[in-house]
Amino acid sequence: MKSGLKLLVRPAYYRPSPSARRGYHDESFGFRKPREYDFPDYTDVQLANRARNSHLLRYVDSMRTHGHRAAHIDPLDLIHREEVAALFPERYGLNDDDKVYDVNGILWTKRVGEAGEGEELWSFRQIRKHLRKVYVGNIAYEYMHSPSKTERLWFSHLLESQSLPSPEDTPLVQMDANKKKRIHELLARSEVFDHFLQLKFPNLKRYGLEGGESMLPALDSLFSAASLAGVHHVILAMPHRGRLNLLTDILQYSPAALFHKIKGGFEIPEDLGAEGDVLSHLVASPSLSYPGASDPIKVSLLPNPSHLEAVNSVAMGKTRAKQFSLLKTSPDDCKLGDRVMCVQLHGDASFTGQGVVMESLGLKEYANSDYLSSIGYTTPASNARSSLYCSDVGKMINAPVLHVNGDHPEDVAKAMDIAFRYRNYFRKDIIVDLLVYRRWHNELDLPSITSPLMYEKIAARKSVPQLYEQKLVTEEVLTLEDINTVRTSYKSKLEAELARMASYVPSASMLEKQWAGIVWPASVEAQHDPSTGVEKEKLEKIGKASVAVPEGFQIHPKLHRHVKNRLQSVTTGKGIDFATAEALAFGSLLLEGTDVRISGQDVGRGTFSHRHAMLVNQQTEGVIVPLNDELKADGKLELANSSLSEMAVLGFEYGASWERPNLLPIWEAQFGDFFNGAQIVIDTFVSSSETKWLKQSAMVLMLPHGLDGAGPEHSSSRLERMLQLTNDRYDVNSEPNNINMHVAFPTTPAQYFHLLRRQICRNYRKPLIIAGPKGLLRLSAASSAIEDIEAGTHFKPVIADPLTDKTKTKKVVMLSGKVYYDLIKERQARELEDSVAFIRIEELAPFPFQQVEDILQQYPNVESYSWLQEEPRNQGAFSHVSGRIASVLRRMGKGNEELTYLGRKESALPAPGVGKLYQVQQRQVLEAPFLGL
Questions:
Q1: Which terminal Cβ of the chain has fewer Cβ within 10 Å, N or C?
Q2: Class of the CATH domain delimited by 798-930
Q3: What is the pLDDT of residues 192-237, one digit of tens each?
Q4: Exposed / middle / buried, residue 594 (Cβ in 10 Å: 0-12, 13-18, 19+)
Q5: How many C-beta atoms lie closer than 10 Å to residue 781's C-beta?
Q6: Mean pLDDT of 392-398
Q7: Residue 727 in contact with residue 739, Cβ under 8 Å?
Q8: How far is Cα of residue 318 from the mean position of the Cα atoms in its chain?
């Protein structure tokens, strides 16, 4: 459909006052307001001159607004551009080149504060020539869409005066001979590297940088500027194009290690049991020293899956976590972004096409992190997108965009310098759109089959390094001998590294620095089942603190009961519900110095209005987080009420878990089904990062689960998907393995309490999927006593049925989840208490083989074993547990016993949408265990 009507329907929600929202943000996110950078407004003289020469002002503003559409930014000159009528001076009545104008207040020609009240006289010829040089060159600027007058003035002044915004600023990048030689070395070495790989490994998909070599001086200039500005750490995310070039050059990755990997070797030690990843996902994290910088700058290139944009929010989360750690220990004058910067690289097609890009950009305020640069590769826009530029998605957050022609490396370096200056002044995102071309797609393809004209032009042109070498020879910066020396010396180095490949032995550094106190999960030192209970006195203190309301703070009337019930349960030690157990787990971790962060939609209140970890003053809309205010612990509780995004938000929290082992990060889906919007992050990061990249994570996914008549998309956390993603062993007789993640379905608050604390109390980190309760949140039968969570207690993977006489049991029914409480009521109503035993398997992965066997041995006269679930047969846990339970029965000598399935039949839906049908099906599920008794 070429055009159409899009109707946005939205309720006019009342929004809290900015001061109230800001106060909560300050308290819960560790936010520090960035430094302000302001320009003086126009003087009266300048305003009068602008009015007097309004036609000239319109022309100048049109050059600022539309100059990018006529700029020379396409290295292949294939982008079809119509004439930009807005740039014709005749449209503004400007026909006389010799006419002289006063440009004071219209053009910026002097340093801020130096512009006097007198006239600044320029002929129109000078004005036109100057504006075209600035705005219609090899760099195109889009900044006039910014709603900030200060930002627009900052750009106009910097670009038009080509001087400095203020006396204390350092100059823009200076292209002296040394800088030009550095650019040449990076370009030349990149080309030598690509040619070397093509010669030595002709069948390798290497995703070379040929055509896009300017990426290297772009990043080198950025790292240099950041280092000089005092940035200590750069978190870098990028796709595969040019990754190997960057790794082996600027990021100092061993070429011998690379060649070892190309030949099929491990990039990680084999004895760790991990399986590694492909060549184009390799990483490095060097400390780089730049001239003039007082300290080295550490650049951490993150591992990423082949879903290229999935790493975006992971990088943002890691950056935010590193910033937060620094803010907890740094002086008050240290602001977010002073020491840590996130840089993202993208291909143009994915930047335009992947929705997570927009989601990640939308986290800008939520995350309070940096997102600096986009690097694009020339693809015909007609085939790739509907917008003029791939970067247009960035305008949703009013990000400035600098488009730069990759055939001109010095302009590329200048664009990066300008971009960093903007980021450093305003602490906002900015996009650099580097237009380059790909000489090859993946070295084994023939792109000319589908793009013949483009690749005919590419084949006929000299490479970017060769063009730049010609320029430097003409300028007498380099000689032909200099050029030959750079190329031959680097080729010799690569030859030496290739010879060293045979003796290369990979090493691992995943347990250094902040991870030094953590062990590898498969090691003998790993503590799998630590005590997670807490002293009773401490629990009482935490429980009271969690609902402490300051004098004069007016909470909602309906919350008085919430406060009363919590105080009563922690005082009496009985009736502890899920929300209370969670608060006790959080508070105990905070007192032990662990930070807790929970994100998702409405997590402060809780989707089911049960948590109330933050309280809102009904008179002022001021917000408090009682556990922070009352406990005043070293740990901090962050409540991130996030945007309506799953993929980006989960990725963000997962990235934070990589950075901080002493953080309990939780992402709570509004309903369990909604995780499917984040399935890519779960598949490529949560479930597999340890196996691919040796990355541990304490990430918790809280997925509300349970059939209760709510319909297809509000019932299931798709347990079957989560369980299928685990590498859980299949047979009781197999050796226990290092499972990639845990999947649990707790039925009591105490079990939930222990699961949360176990994430941190273990001396290693492992992702945890919790099929969370909905109907059990306020069910009195599902409450716990305080002795269930006191010191010396721990999580129980299996809970036996508290039957009186187990010799009378004829049927054993194993199950998980809330249906247990409905079955207990049904059993009581039928007076069959001792005939049917219901055994709850609380942790589905790793499957608790030994605990299941120990409990089954207690029933000597069982006639049948069954698995019961609410979910349809093709869903839920049945496919995961059936074979495993059967292996337990075989070891018990009951190999002839068949595990019977009890539950719904197969369905394309997790739950029916018709209430009457749901009731009929649920009734059948509840009656099934008692048939024949």
A1: N
A2: alpha beta
A3: 999 999 999 999 988 899 999 999 999 999 999 999 999 999 999 9
A4: buried
A5: 12
A6: 90
A7: yes
A8: 8
> What local confidence, expressed as pLDDT, does residue 167 receive?
46
Domain range 536-705+745-789, its CATH number among 3.90.1640.30, 3.40.50.12470, 1.10.10.60, 3.30.43.10 = 3.40.50.12470
Q: How far is CA 255 from CA 210, 245, 247, 495, in A?
A: 18, 10, 9, 10
Please determine, for residue 445, whether its predicted confidence score (pLDDT) is greater than 90.
no
CA 38 – CA 150 distance, rounded (Å) = 6
pLDDT digits 0-9 by tens, 808-855: 999 999 999 999 999 999 999 999 988 999 999 999 999 999 999 999
Query: Which helix (H) or strand (E) element contains residue 815?
Result: strand 811-815
Q: Percent helix, strand and coil across the chain, each rounded to 5? A: 45, 10, 45
Q: How far is CA 791 from CA 532, 536, 578, in A?
A: 7, 8, 19
What pLDDT does 460 receive? 76
Q: Same CATH fold, 536-705+745-789 and 182-506?
A: yes
Rounded-to-integer distance, Cα 658 and Cα 318, Å:
7
* Residue at 694: amino acid letter: L
Supply the DSSP symbol for 534: B
Q: Residue length, the chain?
A: 933
Tell me the backbone φ, ψ of residue 231, rounded to 5 degrees. -70, 135
Listed by start position, the domains of the chain span 44-161, 182-506, 536-705+745-789, 798-930
What single-letter DSSP state applies at residue 599? E
**pLDDT digit string, tens, across residues 448-460:** 666 777 777 777 7
- Reported as a pLDDT band with limits 50, 70 and 90, residue 17 is very low
DSSP for residue 164:
-
Q: Are 112 and 165 in contact, with CB atoms under 8 Å apart?
A: yes
Class of domain 182-506: alpha beta
Main-chain dihedrals φ then ψ at residue 331, nearest 5 degrees: -60, 160
The neighbour count for residue 647, using CB atoms within 10 Å, is: 25
pLDDT (tens digit per residue) in 752-799: 999 999 999 999 999 999 998 888 999 999 999 999 999 999 999 999
DSSP assignment of 337-377 equals: TSSEEEEE---HHHHHH-HHHHHHHTTIIIII------EEE
**pLDDT value of position 579:** 96
- What pLDDT, on the 0 to 100 scale, is given for residue 5? 67
What pLDDT score does 25 carry? Answer: 52
The C-alpha angle 89, 92, 98, rounded to 5 degrees, equals 55
Strand partners, 580: none
Pairing of strands 700-704, 663-668: parallel
| Cα angle 543, 533, 535; round to 5 | 60
Report the C-alpha gap between 704 and 767 in whole angstroms.
17
d(CA 730, CA 324) in angstroms, rounded, equals 42
